[in-house]
Amino acid sequence: MKRLFQISTMVIFTALLSTGCQSITAPEKLSFQDVINRTAKAEEKSHGSRFKIDGEQTFTINAKGQKQTINQKVDANAEMTTKPMAVHFKGNIQGNGQSQQIESYQVGSSIYQLANGSNWLKSEGADLDQFASNQTPSETIQKLQGLLSKLQKDKKDKAFNLKEKKDKYILSINFIEAPENIKQMFQKQMTGAIIPHLKQARVTVNENDIQLKKLDQVITIDKKTFKQEKMDQIMELNISIAQNGDTGTIHGSQKQTQTHQGEYKETIEVPADVKNNASPGPQ
User: Fold this and answer.
1) Domains of the chain: which residue ranges?
2) I need a labelling partner for 196 at 20 to 30 A (CA). Which of 84, 103, 120, 250 fits?
3) What are phi and psi of 106, to 5 degrees?
4) How far apart are alpha carbons 144 and 39 in whole angstroms?
5) What is the pLDDT of residues 176-204, one digit of tens each?
6) Rounded Cα gap, residues 117 and 261, in angstroms
7) Closest Cα partner for 195 from 209, 185, 213?
8) Torsion angle, CA of 17/76/112/205, rounded to 10 degrees?
9) Which range has the top average pLDDT, 45-59, 60-74, 80-94, 263-277?
10) Closest residue by Cα to residue 133 from 185, 94, 63, 201
11) Chain segment 215-224, per-residue pLDDT in tens
């Protein structure tokens, strides 16, 4: 149980963090269409963005009649580009007197994660290009508007909440109530990042054993520039596990804030030594 506990809690954050980096930018009032257009134009001028990430998370494992809980704090920096869609982050997780380095690259659907502070694992998550589909940000946002227009009003109100303040637009998204294809992308991202690490610990787990229970994001957009300033995220998930004939559950919850630190003008590429030394995630 100790081995399972250490691996799962230290690395599951990778999936939650990567999911947070893929937030969907959506409109607010002036009119609905006005803000879509202005947000799209602001995005088109930017090649990429840098973020500071602060978070805390709690994991509880129930297995073999035992229960163990750990609280952790996360400090990381991330870069994200849109052409092509790619994400890189690097930082530390601290909890119970321990500290461990975390780092991850994702280009397309390929995820490279630093495991146990020294070894690299490769796995497949959601294809980041699905968020862009080789479209301009304007076309992506317009596509999102099309999805929203097809939702019944009561479901739209549950999934998306827009507020206007003096100098900000505040967009709240409840992804559990969002269109099914959006939820599936986030589910794919989580399973692709989590499963390889659990299987390394000889834990039996399948995609259907990982359930996203809550994913709420609050995105703050500057009213003058229409650029994202920060994103606050709350996520909860449940994982059913089996090991050596014993079954159990992992419950994870996380809060994180991603604060925009400015434009990122470089290209995110997976270093050759990471590609060459990464082990494929256990199947």
Assistant:
1) 2-277
2) 84
3) -145, 125
4) 13
5) 887 777 777 777 777 777 777 676 667 77
6) 26
7) 209
8) -40
9) 263-277
10) 185
11) 888 888 888 8
